[in-house]
Design goal:
Structural class: mainly beta
Strand content: 35-45%
Strand order of the largest sheet: 6-7-8-9-17-13-12-11-15
Number of strands: 17
CATH superfamily: Glycoside hydrolase, family 65, N-terminal domain
Number of domains: 1
Largest sheet: 9 strands, antiparallel
Helix content: 10-25%
């Protein structure tokens, strides 16, 4: 559980996300409802280590989504009833949203560029995406720690514009731990300032956490499996936690960038 002081700080950090959000909320809801997360995206690279109880396997799509996370063998936590994992960016000045949540994206991205010298299923793996308006470039660099069952994603956001901008950058996952609790898609969810997680009692869980705690950030739960509004990602947070249901986890950053500058934030998925 998060103390009231920490939770208040978390929402103060995210206050910039909600400015003028109500004016855009209806448009986002219509857009979100028209974006299906049920499609199962193809894996560009799959990484596997161990077997049986020590298996740790995940895959990355060509656009930089984690479309599968299985550990131990037979215990899938993301690719259940479709999948939903990805990233969102909000220009806090214009409230333009950019996102890719697996089954569909916002339609305002250029094609992804992949750098992978060793070919598919190898590291290093880097996925670069630029917004179609050229405002920013997001570079995702993937790595892992097999012994700790961790997937790490370093996300470098560069302001390509001629003026300073404040962006919201988030990572989201529709976690369905333990094959969606055996099929009903319900998990126990909770969060702290640095992380959010989902699990089942006497079973396994997945935690999404920041790996760059010095940057302004917040971790929280959404009481929905839909991808969040990048300009108001806490809109669907439950009134109280722990929350039991079909939810999702989010880590969001508030990033102020001068023209031509970049900042790297990082997140980790850990199976526990």
């Amino acid at each position: 559980m998060v103390t009231n002081i920490v939770r208040n700080k978390m929402f103060l950090i995210l206050a910039v996300l909600t400015l003028a959000a109500q004016a855009f909320g209806q448009n986002w809801q219509q857009r979100s409802n028209s974006t299906s997360l049920s499609a199962v995206p193809a894996c560009q690279s799959t990484y596997t280590s161990g077997s049986g109880l020590t298996l740790f396997e995940f895959c990355v799509t060509a656009n930089g989504n984690i479309a599968e996370l299985q550990s131990p063998a037979g215990g899938e936590h993301i690719r259940v009833s479709g999948s939903g994992e990805g990233y969102g960016v909000c220009d806090s000045g214009t409230k333009v949203r950019y996102y890719d949540y697996d089954g569909g994206d916002s339609g305002n991205w250029k094609d992804a560029l992949i750098t992978q010298p060793g070919g598919p299923n190898t590291f290093p793996l880097k996925v670069v995406r630029t917004s179609s308006d050229g405002l920013f470039t997001l570079t995702q660099t993937f790595s892992r720690s097999t012994g700790e069952r961790i997937v790490k994603i370093a996300m470098t956001l560069k302001n390509n514009g001629a003026t300073s901008k404040t962006f919201i950058l988030l990572r989201f996952a529709n976690v369905n731990a333990n094959n969606g609790d055996g099929g009903d898609l319900n998990n126990e969810f909770d969060s702290g300032i640095d992380a959010a997680w989902a699990y089942n009692n006497q079973a396994y869980g997945v935690r999404l956490s920041t790996a760059t705690p010095s940057l302004e950030h917040a971790g929280f739960v959404d009481a929905t499996n839909d991808g969040p509004d990048p300009c108001n990602p806490g809109a669907s947070s439950p009134a109280g936690q722990p929350f039991f249901g079909d939810g999702s986890v989010v880590v969001a950053y508030v990033i102020a960038l001068p023209a031509g500058k970049s900042t790297t934030s990082a997140v980790e998925y850990k199976r526990f």
